[in-house]
Design brief:
It is built from 20 helices and two strands. With 475 residues, the protein is an all-alpha fold.
C-alpha cells in the first residue's frame, strides 16, 4: 500500500507538526515539508520513467483502489513540489501573521498535512467516491486556515468559500453517483475504460461542479475574495493546485460522457475565460487579487487544452497545471514576502524593488515567465497547447486571432506588473531579508527552469503523451 501510505504520511505527521509549532514554526515547517517526500518520490518516478503504480483489484466497488500514471502523476508531482517549498516558506510568514493575530500557528500546521494529503488523494484515487472524499478532506482543512489566519472579514470569506466549494463538490458527487448507478465505479482514465457514452445530465453535473472549483468565467466570483484574503501560504496552494482539481476531473471523468459537438463550445468558453481573467488581472492594484485573477486566466488555458479533446491537448493541460503551479506558487510567496517585510499588498506602493532584493525579483520574473510561456516549463506547456490548437482548427485561421490575443493579454499583465513592482521608481533604500522564505521562492523558480531543459522537458511531454494515446477518451 505504498500509494496510500504516501498520502496518509503528511496527514499523520501534521499531528507532529502541530505539537512542534507550539515551540518552533521553523521545525513545524520542516516536518510538513519532509512529510511530502514520499509523494514526491512516487510521482517523480512515474512521471520521469513512464512507469505506472497500482493498488487494488479494481473489482466491484473497491474504495481503496489507487493508480498513478504519467498524466495524474504530473498533478501529483505538482502538489508535492509546491507543498514542499511552501512548507519551507511558511515559518517566517506564519510568525509574522501569528503576531498580528495574537495566536500561535499550530492549527495552520495541523491542517496543512490534511490539505496536501487530501489533494494528493483526489488525484490518485481510482474509486469515484474516494475522489470526492479526498476533495472534502482538502476543503475542510483549508476552511480552517482561512477562518483562523485569513485577512479582512474572515468569517464572511470562509462562509463564501464553504458555499461555493461545496456546491461544486456536491454537483461533482451527483455526477459520480449517477455513473455508479450505471455500473461505473472508477475514474475512466485510470482504468483505461475508453469512451463510455453520451450523457447530458452526467456531463453537465460534473462539468458545472468542476468549473466552479476551477473558478472559470461566470462562476469565478468567489476566487478573488478567498485567494486574496487567505493566509498567503494557503493562497500559494489554493491558486495553483486546488483549483486544478476541477480540470483533472473534467479530463479524467467528464470527457468520457461528453455529448457530440459540446467540446467546440468549451473551446470558445475557455478562451473567453483566459482573456477575461487576464484583463481583470491587469486592472488590479492589490497584488494578491492580481494573482487571483491571473489564476482565472490560467484555468482558461488548462480548460482549453482539455476542450481540444485530443492527446496533445490533454498533455498540454497536465503540463499547464505544473507550470501554473510552480509559477503561481513563486508569485504568491513573493506577495507573502512583501507582506512580511514591506507590510503592504498595494502595487502602487511598490517600485524599484529589483535593487531591494535582486534574487526575489529574478524569481518573480521567472514566475511570470511561467504564466507567459517563455523560457520555463510554461513554454513547454504552451508549445504543446499551440500545436494541439493548430491540429484542432487546421486551416481555419480566423480562430488563431483570439488565441493570439489570449497570449498577448497574459504577456501584457505579466510584464506590466514586473515593470511597476521591480523596475519603477525606487522607493526604498534598505535591503530585503535573506531568510528561508526567500530561499524557498528562489528554489521553486529554479525548479520551473529545470523542467524546461531536456531531458526533463522531453520526458514530461513524451511520457504523458504516450500514455494518453493508449488511455484517452477519444479512442
Amino acid at each position: 500500500m505504498i500509494i496510500l501510505a504516501s498520502i496518509l504520511t503528511p496527514m499523520a505527521l501534521s499531528l507532529v507538526a502541530y505539537v512542534a509549532a507550539k515551540r518552533s514554526t521553523t521545525l513545524a515547517g520542516f516536518i510538513s515539508a519532509i512529510a511530502l517526500l514520499p509523494i514526491l518520490i512516487i510521482s517523480s518516478y512515474v512521471v520521469l520513467s513512464a512507469g505506472s503504480l497500482s493498488e487494488g483489484t479494481f473489482r466491484d466497488f473497491e474504495i481503496l483502489a489507487f493508480r498513478v500514471i504519467p498524466f495524474n502523476g504530473i498533478f501529483l508531482l505538482t502538489v508535492a513540489l509546491v507543498g514542499f517549498f511552501v512548507a519551507l516558506f511558511s515559518p517566517p510568514y506564519m510568525e509574522h501573521r501569528s503576531e498580528e493575530l495574537g495566536r500561535d500557528s499550530s492549527l495552520f500546521y495541523l491542517t496543512y498535512g490534511f490539505f496536501l494529503g487530501g489533494l494528493a488523494g483526489s488525484f490518485v484515487a481510482a474509486n469515484l467516491i474516494s475522489v470526492y472524499i479526498f476533495i472534502e478532506i482538502a476543503l475542510i482543512a483549508s476552511l480552517f486556515q482561512v477562518l483562523y489566519y485569513g485577512y479582512g472579514d474572515r468569517v464572511r470569506i470562509t462562509v463564501m468559500y464553504l458555499v461555493w466549494s461545496h456546491l461544486g463538490a456536491f454537483l461533482i458527487l451527483a455526477g459520480f453517483l449517477l455513473l455508479a448507478a450505471k455500473g461505473v465505479y472508477y475514474v475512466p482514465l485510470l482504468v483505461e475504460s475508453g469512451y463510455l457514452y453520451q450523457d447530458v445530465l452526467i456531463f453537465l453535473l460534473i462539468l458545472v461542479g468542476a468549473l466552479i472549483k476551477m473558478a472559470t468565467l461566470g462562476v469565478h466570483m468567489w476566487l478573488p475574495y478567498v485567494h486574496a484574503e487567505a493566509p498567503t501560504p494557503l493562497s500559494a496552494l489554493l491558486s495553483p493546485v486546488l483549483v486544478g482539481v476541477g480540470g483533472y476531473i473534467i479530463a479524467a471523468v467528464g470527457m468520457y460522457t461528453v455529448p457530440a459537438g459540446w467540446t467546440q463550445w468549451l473551446v470558445y468558453y475557455s478562451i473567453a475565460t483566459a482573456i477575461y481573467g487576464g484583463l481583470m488581472a491587469f486592472l488590479q492594484q492589490d497584488i494578491k487579487r492580481l494573482f487571483a485573477y491571473s489564476t482565472v486566466s490560467q484555468m482558461g488555458y488548462m480548460l482549453l487544452g482539455i476542450s481540444l479533446f485530443n492527446t496533445l491537448g490533454f498533455t498540454a493541460a497536465a503540463l499547464l497545471y505544473l507550470s501554473h503551479g510552480l509559477g503561481k506558487a513563486v508569485l504568491f510567496m513573493t506577495a507573502g514576502y512583501f507582506i512580511t517585510h514591506l507590510h503592504t499588498r498595494d502595487v502602487k506602493k511598490m517600485g524599484g524593488l529589483y535593487g531591494w532584493r535582486p534574487e526575489l525579483a529574478g524569481a518573480a520574473i521567472v514566475g511570470f515567465l511561467n504564466l507567459a510561456g517563455i523560457l520555463s516549463v510554461g513554454m513547454v506547456s504552451e508549445i504543446v497547447l499551440t500545436v494541439a490548437y493548430a491540429n484542432h482548427f487546421g486551416s481555419d485561421f480566423a480562430w488563431y486571432v483570439p488565441y493570439a490575443f489570449m497570449l498577448l493579454v497574459t504577456a501584457v499583465y505579466a510584464f506590466n506588473t514586473v515593470r511597476i513592482v521591480f523596475f519603477g521608481p525606487h522607493k526604498r533604500e534598505d535591503k530585503g531579508a535573506v531568510d528561508m522564505a526567500l530561499v524557498s521562492i528562489v528554489a521553486t523558480a529554479f525548479v520551473s527552469l529545470l523542467f524546461f531543459i531536456p531531458p526533463f522537458s522531453t520526458a514530461l511531454v513524451d511520457n504523458v503523451y504516450r500514455f494518453l494515446e493508449v488511455v484517452g477518451p477519444w479512442r
